[in-house]
Design a protein that fits this description.
Blueprint: H1 4-7, H2 11-16, E1 23-27, H3 32-40, E2 45-49, H4 57-68, E3 73-77, H5 83-91, E4 96-99, H6 105-115, H7 140-147, E5 149-154, H8 157-161, H9 163-167, E6 174-177, H10 179-185, H11 195-211, E7 215-219, H12 222-231, E8 235-240, H13 241-257
Parallel strand pairs: 1-2, 1-8, 2-3, 3-4, 4-5, 5-6, 6-7, 7-8
Helix pairs in contact: 3-4, 5-6
InterPro entries: Aldolase/citrate-lyase_domain, HpcH-HpaI_aldolase
GO molecular function, one term: lyase activity
Keywords: Lyase, Metal-binding
């Protein structure tokens, strides 16, 4: 059982400062059992997707509780850059949040303000919730701003153009390039392997290294993920729980029935 002091640390920041590149995956099933299983599968971090998965707060709470029993770090990808969504996720104990579709530094500053208590931000205060150990971490409010990690997601050419300005916003801990939406906004929807998209992906990795900020990305298969790691991405995700399940199920069916099944 973690102590009240442990509750205020941010394990994802520790991952980013480690010797190896943290490997994660997307949780699209919405299942606490699968979230726990993925945590037992030795992933370093797991992303709970509140943007594209029909989750309510009790679903998210159950997934956070399931992951807490493993060595994986949870990240909550919010549905939008809205203050109430930060408040709900953070109060449930999601110390690390990813914010989608941030296109400029002004939006990044808003995101940071939503994640921080006054005077650094406008996060609403409550004394009793899971994040404070249900009140057992008595200095939670004083230390919470330092334990919250904010990841800003770049998903459009506009956001990529503003990379350096976004990275320079105080309180932005890391960036994350979303290759799926990037490819769509570039006119190559569903094709992140397109040379034009790949050129941007490589350029973002180079610029993030120059700016001194960690940057993550997700890829569909080990080959592409390994390529992203070689390009200098600081943390990477491979596929999703559902993608892995469907692929493995298909492979098993073909093994039994043959390739024409």
């Amino acid at each position: 059982m973690p102590s009240p002091t442990d509750i205020l640390e941010n394990p994802f920041r520790r991952l980013l400062s480690g010797a190896r590149i943290p490997l994660g995956t997307w949780l699209m099933s919405g299942s606490p059992a699968i979230a726990e299983a993925m945590g037992r599968a030795a992933f370093d971090w797991l992303l709970i997707d509140l943007e594209h998965v029909p989750l309510d707060d009790r679903d998210v709470l159950g997934m956070l509780q399931a992951i807490a029993g493993t060595d994986a770090c949870p990240i909550a990808r919010l549905a939008a850059n809205e203050p109430v969504l930060f408040k709900r996720a953070l109060d449930m104990g999601a110390q690390t949040v990813m914010v989608p579709f941030v296109n400029d530094a002004q939006a990044a500053r808003r995101a940071v303000s939503y994640a921080k208590y006054p005077p650094e931000g406008i996060r609403g205060y409550a004394a009793m919730h899971r994040a404070s150990g249900y009140g057992s971490a008595r200095d939670y409010a004083r230390r919470a701003n330092g334990s919250t990690c904010v990841i800003i997601q770049l998903e459009t050419p506009q956001a990529v153009a503003a990379l350096e300005e976004i990275a320079a916003v105080p309180g932005v801990d890391a960036l994350f390039l979303g290759p799926g939406d990037l490819s769509a906004s570039m006119g190559h929807i569903g094709n992140i392997a397109h040379p034009e998209v790949q050129a941007v992906i490589q350029d973002v990795a180079r610029r993030c290294r120059a700016a001194g900020i960690p940057c993550g990305i997700v890829g569909p298969n080990p080959e592409m993920v390994s390529q992203f790691m070689a390009q200098g991405y600081s943390f990477v995700a491979i596929a999703s729980d559902l993608a892995m399940m469907i692929r493995q199920a298909g492979a098993l069916i073909q093994a039994v029935r043959g390739p024409d099944a």
